[in-house]
Amino acid sequence: MRPAPCRISLPSSSISVEELAQWRAQGRDFILLDVREPFELAAARIEGALHIPLRDLPSRLGDLKRDGEMAVICHRGHRSDYAARFLAAQGFVRVHNVDGGIAAYAERVDASVGSY
């Protein structure tokens, strides 16, 4: 389920899964926000990610830093793109969608995170 309908016309900034891996390796200060459903975590998970299902995002905005950098991930990148646009519309300025999601991350960066 998605957050309450809203018109989101802001473009979303995107990063590749390789860039995400580089950020992690460099110890870059950012939040990896996983917007998948809880049942999806059993199949694939990136350690250290903050899990907030997309449907809960509107009520959990207070858990996130508005001025902090954030990479948003889901299974294939569609829900996370929506979430990144939603967050940008709410005033979060350094939000990036992870292109291809955790499926691409498992395929191209680290198969140990799991896949489904």
CATH architecture level-2 label? 3-Layer(aba) Sandwich
- How large is the share of residues in beta strands? 5-15%
**Could you tell me how far the N terminus lies from the C terminus, measured between alpha carbons in angstroms?**
20 Å
Structural class: alpha/beta
Number of strands: 5
Which shape, going by the Cα principal axes? globular
CATH topology: Oxidized Rhodanese, domain 1
CATH superfamily: Rhodanese-like domain
Order of helices and strands: EHEHEEHEH
Which residues sit in consecutive blocks of at least 5 with pLDDT less than 50?
Answer: none
Query: How many domains make up the 3D coordinates?
Result: 1
What is the overall pLDDT average? Answer: 92
CATH class: Alpha Beta
Order of strands across the main sheet = 1-5-4-2-3
Helical residue percent? 25-40%
Provide a count of the helices: 4
* Largest β sheet strand count, sense and barrel closure: 5 strands, parallel
Radius of gyration: 13 Å
